[in-house]
Model the fold of this input.
Amino acid sequence: MPDLYLQNCRVFSRFTTPLSEDDLKAVRIACSLRRADRFTTLAAAAVKAPAGQAFPATLPPSTGLITVSAFGPHKTVFATLDDILDYPEDMILPVRFSHSVHNAAAAYLGTILAITGPTFAVTGFEAPLFAALELAQTLLHAAACPLVLLIGIEERGSLTQAAPALAPERFPTEPEEIVCAMLLSTEATAGSRRVIHERHPGTGTGTGTGTGTSQPAAAACTLGLSEAAIRQLAESDNTADLRLSPEHAADL
Done:
């Protein structure tokens, strides 16, 4: 596999640049997201929010697109399920239902950015970001597209708030809300960073102490990133290799 290079990156979180509701409102207006749910708006904000680092205004039409999330649009999913339980079938809101699937945000992004390359929505609880990075590297290696735009989204809600109580071994703390945009290629250019990613099973393990003991890793979000890794991604002037490993997130 060829090396993977990060050409541009934006990260919105409480550790870097937070997104305000005013920022999301501005994105809704700019991208005509009148009916989109908050999860989709967060995905669009990854590249269109007025705050944060500069990001290319346009991308080649053949750019690949990958969205990745552990919980996905869970707030919309539960709202849809509530409607199913509370109302007759013919009163279920079709717009809300259509937003309750993981690939809805990807469809919006493809339209907003006018890109028609291969598009995937990745989900899972075992550090899905690293599965998405592997997919991006495969698409680039196969020359399926010249660039891959990887959008990671995790939205806070009632399910993320309950996660530590429901599965404390996997979620020792409440997952952080985070939105990131990573523009990836296999070409080293001025200002790009080589991405060295190591995907291991069991993202909630690994102390990095060399003791061989198994404890929850210090992952700050369900994408599998620690707070330190999130801060590294946000360092626009850093051109050093970016090493990411979900199992040893506490060491980053």
